[in-house]
Write a structure and sequence with these properties.
The structure holds two protein chains of two kinds.
Chain A: E1 4-7, E2 10-14, E3 19-25, E4 32-38, E5 45-51, E6 56-59, E7 62-67, E8 72-77, E9 86-95, E10 101-105, E11 109-114
Parallel strand pairs in A: 2-11
Antiparallel strand pairs in A: 1-3, 3-8, 4-5, 4-9, 6-7, 7-8, 9-10, 9-11
Chain B: E1 5-7, E2 10-13, E3 19-24, E4 31-38, E5 42-50, E6 53-57, E7 64-68, E8 74-78, E9 87-94, E10 105-106, E11 110-114
The chains are: A mainly beta, B mainly beta.
Amino acid sequence: GENVEQHPSTLSVQEGDSAVIKCTYSDSASNYFPWYKQELGKRPQLIIDIRSNVGEKKDQRIAVTLNKTAKHFSLHITETQPEDSAVYFCAASKVGPGGSYIPTFGRGTSLIVHP
Amino acid sequence: DSGVTQTPKHLITATGQRVTLRCSPRSGDLSVYWYQQSLDQGLQFLIQYYNGEERAKGNILERFSAQQFPDLHSELNLSSLELGDSALYFCASSVGPQGDQETQYFGPGTRLLVL
């Protein structure tokens, strides 16, 4: 099955710095890659996603890049703010036997932004 | 607020007992996914239903079962509970094959503590 590795497990930055979280996946059939932000005790919230026919996608301070050949994708957050502090999960999804997308999640990165 | 609701928010029970977790998807969503989130296993996909039918199975134990009802709400039944079943249980919903099937919206979760 699919295996998703996420690094680093913890990332500490100063407010205003950039943060980069990297994920690799194993199954070349995966073609949808969402990123979720989860604050302590809360639900995962989709912050950005990318499909395999696109190499990069940006939404304000957040961007995601995808390298299908190398099977890795990354989340970039610029001008970090204390409210960006949370656990971030990447996922690699492909269509399952029933015709729906089934994600495999990375183990998460705890991002801490110091004021 | 994602529009996905889950009840109860918290559940404390004893080993050997049986509990039922409930999820109502976003209005119009036909797919419901169940996930278990624990510290040691991360976010694990359990099972998916689409319009009342089981579509995909992940790492779901035989002691666990689920169903989706005609009104599209879903229930996850956990029986013969063990200490290791203590975790956050999330459901998520998506539109399904007729729409943006990849994007999943998570509910607030049910925190289960087995004593």
